[in-house]
Write a structure and sequence with these properties.
- Strand 3 and strand 4 form a beta hairpin.
- The chain has a seven-stranded mixed β-sheet, with helices on both faces.
- The chain has a single domain, classed as Rossmann fold (3-Layer(aba) Sandwich).
- The chain is 43% helix and 14% strand.
């Protein structure tokens, strides 16, 4: 019997954590391990979509009907909103700039916390994908609550900088509240990103995180690498654009850690 589709969201209420980059590269990495993956871009900034398609294509998705905002507003099943990416076994449900008004849209809906969960239920039941990875916006509100209710697990990317841990306590409090609604939600772990090993605050970040009770910190961390910026400029995961780069190798190791925990 095939394993059930696992739904993982990448979330952090602080912007600049490398959340979208981590989501896209782990998604691509999982396909290199033979997994079938669906990515869902839940952020109005469209960064996850831009990591796979050029700007004109992404704006076409955003301005059309075939995007996540349209599906949520109409409370549709998401099967018909899936688009193929240029990469084998990696599909996407793109976002829209109109996601900025998603909180208002949700406010008027019945059982609004579960709209995304219902929307992906048919995809999950089909068993077509091994993983569904969701990129959440850097906020804590009704839409992120929706994403967490739809997820089995959350992974929190944290930037190794003086401000990287700022607000993480709020994130943990939000997760505690969420478990009253969805008690099965697990914290898959924290991945440390944008690491410069020469800086003291990298070691301070690791020490602080590893002192937390019952919080897994992934062994693999992602160092600062120009390859990531080049890949973003070329609308591709770094693992596809520059496979030999240090960050590509680190993302592959992180992907293996995530897949082995399945």
């Amino acid at each position: 019997m095939a394993a059930r589709t696992k739904v993982i969201c990448f979330a952090n209420n602080k912007g600049g954590s490398g959340k979208s980059t981590t989501c896209s590269n782990v998604g691509y990495g999982l396909t290199q391990l033979g997994r079938k993956v669906l990515l869902i871009d839940g952020d109005m900034q469209l960064n996850l979509s831009l990591s796979l398609f050029d700007e004109d294509t992404v704006l076409g998705f955003a301005q059309g009907e075939k995007n996540l905002y349209g599906a949520i507003r109409r409370q549709d099943g998401l099967e018909d909103y899936i688009v193929r990416t240029p990469y084998d076994d990696l599909d996407l449900i793109p976002s829209s700039t109109l996601m900025s008004s998603i909180e208002y849209e949700l406010f008027t809906k019945w059982q609004r916390e579960y709209i995304l969960k219902k929307g992906i239920s048919g995809i999950v039941a089909s068993g077509k994908y091994d993983y569904i990875l969701i990129d959440a916006p850097p906020t804590l509100g009704g839409w992120v609550m929706n994403i967490l209710c739809a997820s089995d697990e959350i992974i929190i990317p944290v930037e190794a900088s003086p401000w990287g841990l700022f607000g993480l306590g709020n994130m943990f409090e939000f997760l505690d509240q969420m478990r009253q609604i969805t008690p099965g939600l697990k914290l898959g772990g924290i991945v440390i990103t944008k690491v410069d090993t020469r800086k003291n605050y990298f070691r301070q970040t690791i020490e602080t995180l590893r002192e937390l009770d019952d919080v897994k910190v992934f062994d693999t961390y992602i160092r600062v690498d120009s390859g990531v910026e080049w890949s973003q400029d070329n609308n591709a995961p770094v693992m596809a654009y520059r496979k030999s780069s240090r960050s590509a190798k680190e993302y592959m190791e992180l992907t293996k850690e995530i897949d082995e925990a399945r």
